[in-house]
Specification:
With 180 residues, this protein is mainly α. It has helices at residues 3-12, 16-24, 29-47, 53-81, 91-101, 116-139, 145-176. The chain has one domain (3-176). Helices cover 74% and strands 0% of the residues.
């Protein structure tokens, strides 16, 4: 099995050693990006939401943008707002660990299967959330999972507030110029 596939499987298994490995491997950023792209495509197909090539492009672009913003917000929250004395990290480490934390999203493609699809749509997001907590705990060198959960929750809240603000700003600008 190649290194990338092995890492994806280990990330799905929630192996904390994998998150330490990709945190330290500066060459793994491209692999983390590939996971985000593939999980986005799998999610789009699994939900029936990618009816066009344009949908695939914009869905993937949104996933990549969200991944970068989420990693940066998590970095700020984890290293500036809720650090511990042993917290040492940089945005690249969080990009890599959070990218691989999206590995369970590859299973979203099974959302198309009748009956099983409903279960996939519930289990996969929870699985990804658990992976994010592990990724944050490892990337920020926390000894407490509770602190990692707090960073994820606060980071998520700030991320959502940013999206609401930008959406409102863009909506206001479009209204100003009469764009529907």
């Amino acid at each position: 099995m190649n290194k990338f596939a092995n890492r994806v499987i280990r990330a799905m298994r929630l192996e904390s050693d994998l998150y330490e490995e990709v945190e330290a491997d500066r060459t793994a950023t491209g692999q983390a990006m590939a996971v985000v792209i593939l999980a986005s495509i799998a999610g789009g197909i699994g939900s029936g939401g990618f009816a066009s090539l344009q949908g695939v492009f914009f869905g993937t672009l949104a996933a990549l943008t969200g991944w970068v913003i989420w990693a940066f917000v998590t970095y700020i929250v984890g290293t500036k707002i809720l650090p511990t004395p042993q917290t040492r990290s940089n945005p690249g480490e969080l990009l890599r660990t959070l990218g691989f934390a999206n590995s369970p999203g590859l299973l979203s493609i099974f959302g198309l299967i009748p009956i099983l699809g409903g279960l996939v749509k519930v289990v996969v997001p929870i699985w990804i959330l658990v992976a994010w907590v592990i990724a944050v705990r490892q990337a920020l060198d926390y000894t407490s999972t509770g602190r990692a959960i707090a960073v994820c929750l606060l980071g998520w809240l700030l991320y959502v507030l940013m999206i609401v603000f930008v959406s409102g700003l863009l909506g206001g600008i479009s209204n100003l110029f009469g764009v529907a």
